[in-house]
Amino acid sequence: MDEEALLKQFAAQFAHGPDDADDTDAAAAAQGADSTANQVADDADQSPATFDTQQFLNGLDAIFDRHTAATEAGPYLEQAMVDAENAGDEAGLLTVLNETMGFYRSQGRHKENQWIVQRALELAARMGLTTGTSEAWATTLINCATSMRAAKQYDQAEDLYHQAQSVCRHSLAPTDRRLAALHNNLSMLYSETNRPDKAELELREALRIIEASSVNPDADIDVSSSHTNLALTLLTEHKLEDAHWHAAKALEIYRTGHLEHSAHYASALAGFAQVCFAERRYADAVTGYRHALAVIEECYGKDTDYWRITADNLRQAEEAAAQAGVTVDNAGVAGDAGALPQSGSRLPNSPAQGKTGANAASSPSTVSVSTGSAGAAEAVSACPVSGLKLARAFWTQMGKPMIAAKYPQYAGRIAAGLVGHGSECYGFDDAYSQDHDFGPRFCLWLTDEDYAAIGEQLEVAYEALPRKFSVDAQGRVTFEAHARSDASGAFPSAGAGSPVTPRAQGANRRDGVFRIGDFFESITGYHTAPAQTAPHEWLMLQESTLAAATNGEVFADPTGLFSKTRQGFKNMPDDVRLALISKRLGMIAQAGQYNLPRSLKRGDGAAAWLSIHEFVQATASLVFLVNVPMVVGYMPYYKWQFAALRKLSGSMFALLPNVGEQLETVMRLSSAACYGGAGFGEGGKGAAPAIEKINDIVEQIAVDIVKELKREHLTTSGETFLEWQRPYVEDHIASDDPVLKSL
């Protein structure tokens, strides 16, 4: 397959990715109440005195929902520009311009789009955005850069991307997925300008951000897409082994999360097929392309460039297979060549990942940290990398070699990783988390038989591992096997080996050597997950408990036993999930829709405050349950509940994505609503405005929940008092076990 075909395939992988996400970012800030397409069309016939941005976005969504964008979107956007300008609404006009850039780009109207780009930049300057670090300015820069890249104006595009990076460093959190989208887009520019080495670096950074922001990287579509994109870039660099690992990992994620019915599964299949073709594994390439075509046809139809490019690649793969004398049956399954990697299959270590930390040379800006042989604190400064990254480096550079040297006969039987209690296991740790129970650590999980043979000795060897390390300017961690003779360039870190609290010692220790069953029992009370036919046991397990048992990362699991046990706790029976959704609907109705307004009318601020607490807890839980814990993970305990909810809501594929922000608004207004705002920073305006706003948000959340239940075919009712939705949901519970039914 020639380079041009490869680049076409590469471009196809991004069809659903960061470009589209960037455009919707501009829209998200202004989205609001629903309106019908007819109302929008009627309003568009006039030049209003004011411009309704929310109504504009709703109307645009309606056009795309009707699949009439090719004929209707252009005139609609042009009229909206006129209306916003006539109304003097600069912010509204900037939103229209951002949406127009995305549409023109998708239609190949690049010449016209350059005018839109110029107009957007001039407007942003007039609004004073160009001297700040607002998200609106960052979004505009990204959309302008992507439009210029599509028009092959690469110099201008690169400059705009670099400006966007500078703004995003100040306006976005380090794990914000929009940063990953920016790195993805920049990697495409480097690929299109024959700089694959730079493209690779950008994609690795995008993957790092997405994994860090993911509730469950092992079942996250965005993580899978990043692996596919990276695999295709590595392919252009002829790094076949690394490309194969990332392409196979992408497929593994879809299968782990049972996401094969996603339209984007085709990208992972085609990406793996592309790698197989380069490896001359033509039968596997044919299998992958045929499967990808089937998904594309089902989701998009045949009349698309996506289908045509993939079909052309399949034709070339079939011709190459025929020339090589390789036969592939009509179902597309290779005869004597390896089939596509199946769910549960283990992948080799990624060559690039295996070398990143251990062989990294220290730079002048390296931070060196020493924690002592037993991790005792010698603290003065915070560790600059996350606990999970530190744990993986500690395992790769110290733990794994120690096992290979001292216990070679067990090296293929020991699982390693970091799972369980602790902020770093959720990926939420920061400098404030490092004052206790933080440092280089990982867990080693053994079968009962292996633990009896080497468990105690292995624990001693683990405790003796050197814990002195350095972190360079790129965030690469290097552990030192021997302490330096002098302390030049080194200083101890408060976060690197902080005091171990009593709750993390003894039977509650969070690292070291464990029997697999004992490890899970210490968290959940069960050696293995309850049976799928034991709903009463599942209902006794709190979501936060299940979150602790299934969080973190597994670095190695040669036998697959630990991962299988862990997966059991992820696999909540769907009947149990539906029963919990019903319970949450009941509490949302009882606490938020019924008792909260009554308590406020009575003037019982304490009861109202507790009602808000119950409403928020139930609603947040429902968001995780609707998104399916197998895919997004479970809601963690209260400290990290909203951190996890924000990450989930930021996902491109999240359901009920706006609820988290609405709940935070409810909590912010609760002081004024419950106690009149006196002394709570609400301006002394009294309770009435806050009460009205909270009640409106509660009802809007209920409306959004009903829409989602309908979309999931869990209800046919439009009733927004959620107690009345419970029978509809419970009708979908297959089991007759009375513990699952509340009515």
TrEMBL record:
Which spans does this entry mark as compositional bias, Low complexity?
Answer: 26-37
Q: By its UniProt entry, which SUPFAM superfamilies does this protein fall under?
A: TPR-like
- Tell me what this protein is called: DUF4037 domain-containing protein
Keyword S-adenosyl-L-methionine in record: no
* InterPro entries xrefs: DUF4037, TPR-like_helical_dom_sf, TPR_rpt
Task: Give the Polar residues compositional bias ranges.
Answer: 342-353
**Domain of life of the organism in this record?**
Bacteria
Species in which this protein is naturally found: Bifidobacterium longum subsp. longum
Q: Which residues form the DUF4037 domain?
A: 538-640
Query: Which ranges does the record mark as transmembrane?
Result: none
